[in-house]
Amino acid sequence: MNSDSGLGTHLNRSALKRFLILVAMAGFAALPALVLRSGGWRLGPIAETAIFGVAILAAGFLLSWGAEAAERHIAQGLILAVVALITVLPEYAVDMYYAFQAGQAGPESPYVHYAAANMTGANRLLVGVAWPLLALLHWIKDRHRAIELTSDNAIEVSFLLLASLYAFVILLKGNITLFDLTVLVAIYGGYLWRVRNVQKNDKPDEGDEPGPAAALNELTLRTQWMVMAGLGLAACGIILWSAEPFAEAMIEAGRALGINEFLLIQWLAPLASEAPAVSVAVLFVLRGQAAGGLTTMISDKINQWTLLVGMLPLAMTVGAGGATALPLDARQIEEFFLTASQSLFGVALLVRLRFGLSSAAALALLFLVQVSFAYYFRNDEMRMIATLSGLAWIYLALASVLFIWNGRRLLEIIRFTFRLPAASANPRTSDPARGER
Asked: Domain 2-418: which CATH class?
């Protein structure tokens, strides 16, 4: 017994040592950015994009480890939403900077396009890359062809549907206003209220791999909260210090390399800022909690499709010094249309509360098509707009077919979420045929 206890203590210390090494590595990764900006030195846009991008990535991992540690102390439904919100803060920082600059420079400024590009790119990367990645990893690890969600996940699906439908209201107006901020914050607030008491339903097996922050379990509760707060404060400081030079360096790097800066901001910036959030979801899958990982990514999509979109006119208003809206020109309208349509298709694939390999393949393939066309028509604005519109209608057509096919299930998850009277209170019980789509 004593030898087992000693072995356990040794393993716990080793885990804590590994965690401290990871934190130190993240700190060292962010150090060049802190030194570079503090000294006011310039190394050229390409080098600065890499240095400040790595700093934001490192800060995102610090946030994700702090959120992972907090997971054990808060109801599962709420913590998954909070984890999703915390880990995507780097994305918010970059986009808010572009929107603030747009407010200062005026509605005709290219910063308006940059803010919209970063937002739509981040949203489409989540659905087109992150969701399929989780399904693939789940199949590789457990040979399961689908991630099975619980009836409680009807809440995420319903609120993502609500946010996606409201996006079409914004499209009809052609701009994002402070009124939209009010509506979108209300949707997100309703989502948090509804998931606040949802508990964990999928437990990891004993052999599942814990995340890096699991080592904090051996510390006292007070010390755990102090470490979590320290990680959060350090990460926020790094993000705030690095967001502006990273955003500006990307614009300059695009021009220096002859790459369309709009596309660079749309795809490169979200890759750096979304990586920590995706890593948290991947950890869930590796720990045998694939449903928790997918729920985190869905929640990430909800907060980006509500708070991130809604805060753009707020940041622009602060920059302008007076109430203003973020205008959407012809290109941005089609980008927003494509993003909203992809979101609806994603919801349609989740209506049966499962996400299988065929669903993942459909999302990944369509995303690959849109990125390929975006690169091919990067210098032809008219063809780009026509292509974006055509792809958006394809997403809408596919979503419509799935909604009609699974109409009864859709009504059930809506009734479950908003507690409406129905013959069946459980959105998973009415259709026994749950084969792969």
From this structure: mainly alpha
Tokens 């959105």 found at? 427
Q: Where are the domains of the chain?
A: 2-418
* Pairwise CA distance, residues 378 & 376, whole Å: 6
Q: Whose CA is closest to 171, among 122, 98, 120, 102?
A: 120
pLDDT digits (tens, 9 = 90+) for 113-130: 888 888 888 889 889 999
Tell me the pLDDT tens digit for each residue of 37-67. 887 777 887 888 888 888 877 877 777 777 6
Distance CA 261, CA 267 (A): 10
Beta-carbon contacts of 331 under 8 Å, excluding residues fewer than 6 positions away, are: 113, 381, 384, 385, 388
Structural contact between residues 294 and 131, judged by C-beta atoms closer than 8 angstroms: yes
Q: Where are the beta strands (DSSP E) in 111-255?
A: 146-148, 175-176
Task: Name 397's bridge partners.
Answer: none
pLDDT in tens, 356-381: 999 999 999 999 998 888 777 777 77
Phi, psi dihedrals of residue 356, rounded to the nearest 5° = -100, 180
